Model the fold of this input.
Amino acid sequence: MLSVMQAFDRSLIAEIKTDDEAALERKLQSAERVFADRDGWLKPHERIAILRKLATLMEGKRDHLAMQIAREGGKPLPDAIVETNRAIDGVHNAADELRNFAGREIPMGLSAAAENRWAFTTKEPIGVVAAISAFNHPLNLIVHQVAPAIAVGCPVIVKPAATTPLSCLDFVAMVREAGLPAPWCQTLVTDDNALAQSLATDRRIAFLSFIGSARVGWSLHAKLPAGARSALEHGGAAPAIVDRSADLDKVIEPIVKGGYYHAGQVCVSTQRIFVHGEIADDFTQRLVARVEKLRTADPALGDTEVGPLILPREADRVGQWISEAVEGGAALAIGGRRLSETTLEPTVLLDPDADAKVSMLEVFGPVVAVYRYTALDEAIRQANALPTAFQASVFAQDIDVALSAAERLDASAVMINDPTAFRTDWMPFAGRRESGYGTGGIPYTMRDMTQEKMILMRRS
Done:
């Protein structure tokens, strides 16, 4: 049995049955069997109807889903409501995308050898999908991994994070209620990493969608069967550059949202803030004043802004990183205290060493570090200095500075006057280098879960 605990106070929510090796084998066989039966593949209009009904069912459970996210994952209820709304919209997005999801004509007649021929491509589902998900968006990440598979016609086996399985189980139950036969969408509930690896690397898996640590993701990627594709979504220490031309009246709120949303447990959470020396004192004073007002409390309350970390050991780790940074010379501007087993005060560190953990590694906690700079080149160099690269921000009213930084920052997306954590569910979302592989976002995942087949006809 798996005990699911409330992230905030560690009280028991539920105990659920886990799967074993025999259950995994049954599920893999079932998925392989339905995919092998081409006559049984659902038509696009049938998949659209299932997704539309699924979205309607989710709308009917909107309040339940949001509260469950807050309880099992610790995300403050206002943000959990936003996640639920995004998840519902994501299901619609997958259905909508099918209206224009098609192959293309391949030109013939461009050489004498290609005369009297006509060729076009179609898109076919790639095969069985293994989806291994993360705790920090326990509903919306599942939607991002499962809805594209349903849309394009891939059987999918989804393993939720062991800390947050309830949102996934509810979602898959609604998928079944919406009319998708069970073999096309199954769950694997386990806290056994070896069993999860067996799923990801099984010879019957054609596509692995993995959201989690880089160490685990790249290890699984190296063990995939021949021909299998993957999409890896890891994280990094997202940088934000605040130029002296920035409007500080409009900067602090997005910086704070980017840094402390879900207690910093976001793969693109704003972590390293590079501020021009001419405005650094003013910026820091305003930042600290706003952080001081953040309400850290039970995420199930409607006015909570910062909730808990997912596990006590994560609070231990983040607290240790803060202490090490201060011992190494960083100034503690605010925060750093442990409030409970899983909650920490939102923290601002000033000028930690470049080799401090908070400067080099993903904190995944309610901590931001502020660094002064004098030249834009210097800030960009520091921002680009790590082996991870995902999303970045630049805050500036000077368009030349904004575009110069956007062009030179090593990131898959650069937000101008918006936080690093900004995302819509239809935009491309990708880590570079150690931060990931492939491109997320529902339309992009649908493309990755299909393969093109060319059909050529010769006229006599």
Observations:
- The longest helix spans residues 77-97.
- The two ends are 66 Å apart (CA to CA).
- The first strand starts at residue 2 and ends at 5.
